[in-house]
Recover the amino acids of this structure.
């Protein structure tokens, strides 16, 4: 008898798990209450990157004269950009749906919850109430933006991330609350599309979790392009005025008024209405479902993957977790399953300059007193960066001084999100700096700076 595998949530984690398990012979049902492809993925991650790409062309055009062109002044076509964003997300949704259909996965459009350890109840829009038996269950329900009690979110003037695209209008003056990865991407996105932007930074450093040198590089660029930073201020109130303006009040008495406010202050797991208590599935104090190496919760046949697992909230991580959970359900864990080391996950921030990092950061090593070797090469000495007209930024490699093993790295500059893959492969596979330095690379290429930093 095939294994009955029921998946709640059709984001990157759920779709990847469904596809893997179906390929391995499971009878798979996927329950999704919004959009196959995932709400966080298709309503946040992908649209934000698509709009950043449009803004990037405007920024590039502003620099075009440096490459020997007459000054270019393209203007934003808002309707065309909206259409483009919708076409991209529609395409990804269709691709996921077709993939699952071709593999015989039953997709139910509706909201599911556990009713005991082996039954899923679904309120389906098309099929009414459905009861499903499961030998194994995957919770892949993702997360949603956190909304503080003091924020009157209306989707018009006071926005959550996923309400900001595709936008009806480009904000005249956007006030962004939250200076983590999401907050700074929004600053960059709307600044490049023509908004005046103010960023409220609760500490003294934007991107507080990142290497200070990396954060400083972005801050320099923000200030150079007119972004206003309100540092050491915590937002604690928002008032929408009759004239359409919005004022944010900070805990130190400072006020900032703009045309729109965007909240980017973290997310909450979608776990509270899943009936987890009926099956005895434990959550942590914030509602995330703790998991082991195979993505199992405390109940061995109930798995969790993606944002709801409380590990790194990245689509890239959700994909791998979904695949891993499905393989374990199908007994493939007996084959050597490499230890999934979340500390070695690469991540990127799609700002300008782009930022990416992987593994151990210099500041992190310093904080725990670990001996490291740090080498840094600026793009200003890289031929390709000069040719492209954008020599900002640097590559920094952190390695073990005794063995030469690459422990981590940060990249600030053009194509950082692509280049970091090389360092991610090195970190994951314990390659040494000499392995990078002795590789025969292309010339002229930005990647040459990687080899140089590895020397
Ligand atoms: C602004 C922003 C930008 C981002 N940019 C990036 C990026 O550049 N790179 C990156 O790797 N990650 C990025 N992320 C993070 C990424 O989007 C998430 O980590 C990823 O989508 C998580 O996948 P998931 O499958 O866990 O959840 P989701 O993609 O949210 O999918 C979960 C699905 O489950 C459904 N669901 C919830 N409850 C139920 C239920 N009871 N029954 C049925 N269905 C249910 C939801 O509707 C949703 O569709 C970004 C996030 C944000 C907010």
């Amino acid at each position: 008898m095939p294994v009955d595998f029921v998946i709640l949530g059709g984001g990157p984690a759920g779709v990847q798990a469904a596809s893997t398990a179906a390929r391995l012979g499971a009878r798979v049902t996927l329950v999704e209450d919004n959009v196959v492809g995932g709400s966080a993925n298709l309503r946040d991650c992908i649209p934000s990157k698509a709009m950043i790409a449009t803004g990037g062309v405007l920024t590039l055009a502003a620099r075009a004269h440096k490459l020997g062109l007459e000054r270019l002044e393209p203007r934003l076509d808002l309707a065309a950009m909206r259409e483009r964003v919708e076409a991209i997300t529609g395409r990804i949704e269709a691709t996921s749906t077709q993939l699952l259909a071709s593999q015989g996965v039953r997709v139910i459009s509706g909201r599911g919850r556990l009713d005991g350890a082996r039954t899923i109840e679904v309120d389906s829009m098309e099929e009414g109430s459905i009861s499903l038996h499961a030998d194994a269950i995957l919770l892949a329900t993702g997360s949603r933006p956190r909304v503080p009690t003091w924020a009157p979110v209306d989707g018009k003037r006071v926005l959550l991330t996923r309400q900001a695209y595709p936008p009806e209008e480009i904000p005249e003056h956007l006030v962004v609350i939250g200076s983590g990865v999401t907050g700074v991407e929004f600053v960059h996105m709307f600044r490049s599309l023509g908004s005046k932007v103010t960023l409220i930074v609760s500490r003294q450093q934007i991107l507080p979790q990142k290497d200070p040198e990396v954060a400083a590089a972005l801050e320099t660029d923000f200030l150079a392009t007119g972004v206003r930073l309100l540092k050491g201020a915590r937002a604690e109130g928002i008032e929408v005025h009759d004239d359409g303006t919005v004022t944010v009040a900070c805990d130190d008495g400072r006020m900032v008024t703009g045309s729109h406010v965007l909240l980017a202050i973290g997310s909450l797991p979608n776990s509270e209405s899943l009936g987890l208590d009926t099956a005895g599935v434990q959550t942590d104090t914030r509602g995330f479902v703790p998991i082991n190496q195979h993505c199992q919760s405390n109940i061995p046949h109930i798995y969790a993957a993606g944002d709801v697992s409380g590990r790194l909230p990245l689509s890239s991580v959700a994909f791998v977790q979904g695949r891993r959970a499905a393989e374990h359900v199908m007994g493939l864990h007996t084959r050597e399953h490499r230890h999934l080391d979340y500390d070695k996950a690469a991540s990127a921030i799609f700002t300008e300059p782009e930022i990416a990092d992987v593994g151990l950061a210099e500041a992190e090593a310093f904080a725990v007193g670990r001996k490291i070797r740090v080498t840094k090469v600026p793009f200003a000495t890289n031929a390709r960066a000069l040719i492209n007209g954008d020599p900002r930024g640097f590559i920094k490699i952190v390695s073990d001084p005794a063995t030469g093993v690459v422990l981590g790295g940060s990249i600030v500059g053009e194509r950082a999100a692509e280049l970091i893959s090389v360092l991610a492969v090195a970190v994951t596979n314990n390659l040494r700096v000499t392995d990078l330095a002795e590789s025969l690379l292309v010339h002229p290429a930005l990647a040459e700076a990687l080899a140089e930093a590895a020397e």
